[in-house]
């Protein structure tokens, strides 16, 4: 399936809705991909931070001019701007700094710069191989991040790993392909958006 079919203004709007409330089990595709995230601190705070960076990125995907040299960052949380900046003068909270280090250790990649990360949400960019589905709490310091990868076990997700780590992950494992029934069974303990 081509990415142009995977990401559209409508699919970005659907992702935004799923960020703020759990989708219904009936809306779930048969297969989802799951990341297991051990968090530093409270799992609900972690989920809030993760949503706080994905929400403006998804909105920009629907509204920004990706032909421009940069997209606006006014709605992106200051801590994510700081951790995604090469400017060492910016104050980066400990959870994000630790997450940046965890990301580079996990992926052997470099930290993402903010504009490069945001450009992954351009609907015409074919490198983002996932759509947000949900986050569920599976312990006091563990969550599952669920995405729709169209049944693929291998997909472009470095951008998601950056967001997951810098939001306060101590460890991220996955993705693994799971039947959507596994996600649905966890939604009773889901982490509601504020």
List keywords for this structure.
single chain; disordered N terminus; 4-stranded antiparallel sheet; alpha+beta; 194 residues
Secondary-structure map:
Layout: H1 3-6, H2 9-20, E1 31-39, H3 43-63, H4 78-83, H5 94-107, H6 114-118, E2 131-139, E3 142-148, H7 158-166, E4 169-179, H8 180-186
Helix pairs in contact: 2-3, 5-7
Report on the structure:
This protein has eight helices and four strands. It has one domain. Mean pLDDT is 91; it is low at 1-5. It has helices spanning 3-6, 9-20, 43-63, 78-83, 94-107, 114-118, 158-166, 180-186, and strands at residues 31-39, 131-139, 142-148, 169-179. Helix 2 packs antiparallel against helix 3 (43-63) and helix 5 (94-107) runs antiparallel to helix 7 (158-166). By secondary structure, the protein is α+β, with helices and mostly antiparallel strands. The termini are far apart.
In whole angstroms, how far apart are the ends? 34 Å
Write down the Rg.
16 Å
How helical, in percent, are the residues? 40-55%
The shape, in one word, is globular
Number of distinct beta strands: 4
The biggest beta sheet, please?
4 strands, antiparallel
Low-confidence stretches: 1-5
Main β-sheet, spatial strand arrangement: 2-3-1-4
Spell out the helices and strands N to C: HHEHHHHEEHEH
Strand content: 15-25%
In short:
The chain is α+β, with helices and mostly antiparallel strands and 194 residues long. Helix content is 40%, strand content 19%. Strand 2 and strand 3 form a beta hairpin.
């Amino acid at each position: 399936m081509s990415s142009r079919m995977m990401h559209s203004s409508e699919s970005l709007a659907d992702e935004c809705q799923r960020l703020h409330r759990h989708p219904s089990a009936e809306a779930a595709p048969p297969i989802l991909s799951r990341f297991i995230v051990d968090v530093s601190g409270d799992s609900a705070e972690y989920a809030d931070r993760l949503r706080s960076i994905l929400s403006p990125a998804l909105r920009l995907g629907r509204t920004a001019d990706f032909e421009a040299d940069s997209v606006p960052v006014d709605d992106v949380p200051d801590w994510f701007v700081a951790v995604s900046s090469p400017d060492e003068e910016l104050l980066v909270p400990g959870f994000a700094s630790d997450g940046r280090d965890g990301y580079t250790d996990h992926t052997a990649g470099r930290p993402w710069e903010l504009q490069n990360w945001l450009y992954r949400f351009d609907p015409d960019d074919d490198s983002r191989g996932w759509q947000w589905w949900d986050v569920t709490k599976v312990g006091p310091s563990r969550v599952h991040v669920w995405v729709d990868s169209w049944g693929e076990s291998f997909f472009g997700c470095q951008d998601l790993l950056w967001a997951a780590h810098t939001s306060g992950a101590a460890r991220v494992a996955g993705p693994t392909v799971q039947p959507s029934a596994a996600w649905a069974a966890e939604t009773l303990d889901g982490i509601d958006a504020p």
